[in-house]
Amino acid sequence: MRIMHVVSSPAAGGAEVYVKDLAKRLAKHGHDVTIAFLGSAKDNGRSESYEKNFLDDLNASGVTWEFIGNECRKRPWRGIQRIKTLAKKYRLQVYHSHLPFGVIFGMGLGCPKVYTHHSINPRLSWLTYRIFNQIIDRYVGISQVCAQRLSDYCAQDVTPILNGVDLERFPKVDRSPVLKNGLVNAVVVGRIHPHKGYYFLADVIKSLPAEIQPKIQVSIAGEGDVEYTAQLKQFLKESNVASRFTFLGNRSDVPRLLSEADIFLMSSEQEGLPISLIEATVSGLPCIVTDVGGCSEIIEMCGNGVAVEYGDTEAYARELREVIERPEKLRRWSASAGDKCSQLDIESAAQKHLAVYEELIGARK
Fold first, then answer.
1. What is the pLDDT of residues 225-277, one digit of tens each?
2. Same domain assignment for residues 64 and 119
3. CB–CB of 49/17 below 8 Å?
4. Residue 35 and residue 59 in contact, taking contact as beta carbons nearer than 8 Å
5. How far apart (Å, rounded) are the C-alpha atoms in residues 77 and 98?
6. Domain check: are 150 and 197 in the same one?
7. Does residue 356 share a domain with residue 336?
């Protein structure tokens, strides 16, 4: 099968990492897979060194890649023409966009077209989805709740396919020993962005009793806008919790960071189904997350933590304090994740996508 995925850029975003892993697994099964990026890291102000590693990984896995051109955002007719050219070059049988722009760019193609929605929010107007309904052959949602929300909005059936990761990249760690020096090492993986709720997390840490605060250290792995990051650091300083946070910047060794942590924290205001949560889960890492998007689906499925309402500082702090004071709970959550995370393998997602592609191709014959 000859498949093209369209995504924003070779960056450290959840959708981008997921598409890369999915493309690699499809290629491993003998399919010809190309990823078309709307823009480069430089275009979008992202890490160029990360982009190099990203593209090197694709090259080593037999996945081809192309750049459409970031200018096509303002000149969509150029995007349409470039996708037509690429479709002819690769003799596409399936066109799969993970961007609304990609849907427009693929409107002139004769092959089946799939669109994956990576957010809990519709993001587009009712009229836009009515136009999309004339272009797209199949909608995919990355969790049950995301699929249902999109279906309600676009008035079309949406196929839920859970995000997945390559389990081999995330070795499970024996978390049975007692915490080192009584310190809980927490890790957060996510871009420095208002939607990630870092101010909320700061308030959570601030609300912990004075004797508890020194027992937790939060490391944040992710890049972000320089000005916003500076504002966040100033807020942490003013809240007297700056010493409890470490900013690691953009990292390509996330599996190692997860293996060395005691707990994964997520404080997002909104999500679809974050890859970082799945990565933490398959690493056997206990999790405290906000109940947004499909996050609670993962927690309920794997029993590796708890989901609390975004903005409920008291509830989040209570859960965090409990695991600091009673680390045996961390060990129970970790064991449960290890027993139940197999369904989050990228192989499961790949097989479900192949089933969709084969169905759509068969319907064209």
1. 899 999 999 999 999 999 999 999 988 899 999 999 999 999 999 898 899 99
2. yes
3. no
4. no
5. 19
6. no
7. no
In the chain, the largest separation of any two C-alpha atoms, in whole Å, equals 68
Q: Model-level pTM? A: 0.86
Contacts of 28 by beta carbon, 8 Å cutoff, 6+ apart: 61
Among residues 178, 118, 174, 172, which one has the least CA distance to residue 150?
Answer: 118
What percent of the chain lies above the pLDDT cut of 70?
98
Please state, in angstroms and rounded to a whole number, the distance separating the CA atoms of residues 338 and 284: 5
SS3 label, residue 262? coil
Q: 178 pLDDT exceeds 60?
A: no
CA dihedral 46, 48, 51, 55 (to 10 degrees): 150
Q: Which domain holds residue 267?
A: 168-344
CA distance 123 to 223: 23
85 - beta bridge partners? Answer: none
Evaluate whether 95 touches 109 at the Cβ level (below 8 Å): yes
Q: How far apart are CA 68 and CA 149, in angstroms?
A: 30
Tell me: pLDDT of 338 over 80.
no
